[in-house]
Design goal:
single chain; mainly alpha; Hypothetical protein af1432; 11 helices
């Protein structure tokens, strides 16, 4: 008796995005915007098509692990206590595990990018405290564009920062939290028309 063929390599990918949207519509919109930015920046940094594909998948799924975070932690408006912060940080590990359970042909690479998208250039990030070149390049790209969108997206409890303010903060983190080469490419890209004139890439300050 013939065995059933595995699902298409995209497999559960659309279902994961649907589940993320059902759990937290803001996070789904955030991931879509981060994907748009990450691919543009990846092309600016001359990533090959294979690496761009992994970056595309990882950027859309980088916060999928938040499905495993409790509602009272995920939606808390005030500062998280140490235990809550540990739970929130675990979303990177949850996300890696979820991606590794898909049929994506490059799932190992995508899962690694997801796991390390909060690693800081100076080693102060999580979950593994990696630094510099030990962090996947795509994760270093994700960290920059993730920070930009988080700062410029409005939330019910926080007004968005302006494009110029967010760019200034990102530039100031070069060499500490953020990869200076990625920051330089991003700042150059973000200060080039039509970005500079529109103060946005499709109005990122609008909540999803």
């Amino acid at each position: 008796m013939a065995t059933a063929a595995p699902p298409d390599q995209q497999g559960a990918y659309p279902s994961l995005l649907t589940a993320l949207c059902a759990r937290d519509a803001y996070t789904r919109g955030h991931c879509d915007r981060v994907c748009t930015l990450a691919l543009a920046l990846g092309r600016r940094l001359d990533l090959c098509e294979r690496d761009l594909d992994a970056l595309r998948l990882a950027s859309q799924l980088h916060d999928i692990g938040k499905i495993g975070v409790r509602d009272d932690v995920l939606y808390k408006r005030g500062r998280l206590d140490p235990a809550e912060w540990d739970e929130m940080k675990a979303h990177a590990i949850h996300g890696e595990r979820i991606v590794n359970q898909t049929y994506l042909s490059n799932r190992a690479e995508v899962a690694a990018i997801v796991r390390h998208h909060h690693e800081a250039f100076d080693g102060s990030g999580y979950p593994d405290g990696l630094s510099q070149a030990a962090i996947p390049r795509a994760s270093r790209i994700l960290l920059v564009v993730d920070a930009y969108d988080a700062m410029t997206s409005g939330r019910p409890y926080r007004a968005p920062r302006s494009h110029a303010e967010a760019i200034g903060i990102i530039a100031g983190e070069a060499g500490t939290q953020l990869d200076p080469a990625v920051v330089a490419a991003f700042v150059d890209f973000a200060n080039t028309p039509p970005w500079r004139e529109s103060d946005a890439y499709g109005d990122p300050a609008r909540p999803a």
